[in-house]
Design goal:
The complex is a heterodimer of chains A (about 120) and B (about 110).
Chain A lengths: L4 E3 L2 E4 L5 E6 L6 E7 L6 E7 L2 E4 L8 E4 L6 E5 L8 E8 L11 E2 L3 E5 L1
Chain B lengths: L2 E4 L3 E5 L4 E3 L1 E4 L5 E7 L5 E7 L5 E3 L5 E5 L4 E6 L8 E8 L6 E3 L3 E6 L1
Classes of the chains: A mainly beta (about 120), B mainly beta (about 110).
């Protein structure tokens, strides 16, 4: 597609429920990233994929969080047994190549805003 | 470890006056540095990027930033603010051989008419 598409744009759920957030990257982009942005803060790295391989998941806060990208395109971020502290904007980004240097640039989606009641 | 400090959480300027958004970084290596802008209900948009070529980097919409290694700064400037510049701006440092971006806390720019 023309840009990075995320769905749902808004999700309100009750504590304890599971949620799945979807990211559809720009066609042909090799790398896919998930970031989380709490209110009043900058985005924080969660995880990174190169094609279908999850290369770095060091930013996932605990084992309730998981992500997959089974065919190297669309990715899903899943949060199990949600807690109120999980409320945030979840942002996906994709890039044509790997890394943050040189000509490689990350393109971000509009985000999925999660509210856990 | 890399980090970014944006020195002002809010900046207010009048339309037509200069803009200065301040950023200091910490990095063990020559970093990649970026400025992103976030308009309400929109994705983060890249304004400009420094990757060890010219120290003065020109970006979109008339913005530019200067990399000063001695001051570990990467301040964002624009000669004349426009109402459409009102948004939140993030200074970002990238791992030299990695894939993570480290964001500052953001500066909200308000432009008064």
């Amino acid at each position: 597609g023309a840009g990075v598409s995320q769905s749902p744009r808004y999700k309100v759920t009750k504590r304890g429920q599971d949620v799945a957030l979807r990211c559809d990257p720009i066609s042909g982009h090799v790398s896919l990233y998930w970031y989380r942005q709490a209110l009043g803060q900058g985005p924080e790295f969660l995880t990174y994929f190169n094609y279908e391989a999850q290369q770095d998941k060091s930013g996932l806060p605990n084992d309730r969080f998981s992500a997959e990208r089974p065919e190297g395109s669309i990715s899903t971020l899943t949060i199990q047994r949600t807690e109120q502290r999980d409320s945030a904007m979840y942002r996906c980004a994709s890039s044509l190549g790997q890394g943050t240097s040189g000509a490689n640039v990350l393109t971000f989606g509009a985000g999925s805003r999660l509210t856990v009641l | 470890a890399q980090s970014v400090t944006q020195l002002d959480s809010h900046v207010s300027v009048s339309e037509g006056t200069p803009v200065l958004l301040r950023c200091n970084y910490s990095s063990s290596y020559s970093p990649s540095l970026f400025w992103y802008v976030q308009h309400p209900n929109k994705g983060l948009q890249l304004l400009l990027k420094y990757t060890s070529a010219a120290t003065l980097v020109k970006g979109i919409n008339g913005f530019e930033a200067e990399f000063k290694k001695s001051e570990t700064s990467f301040h964002l400037t624009k000669p004349s603010a426009h109402m459409s510049d009102a948004a939140e701006y993030f200074c970002v440092v990238g791992e030299r051989y990695g894939n993570k971006l480290v964001f500052g806390a953001g500066t909200i720019l308000r432009v008064k008419s």
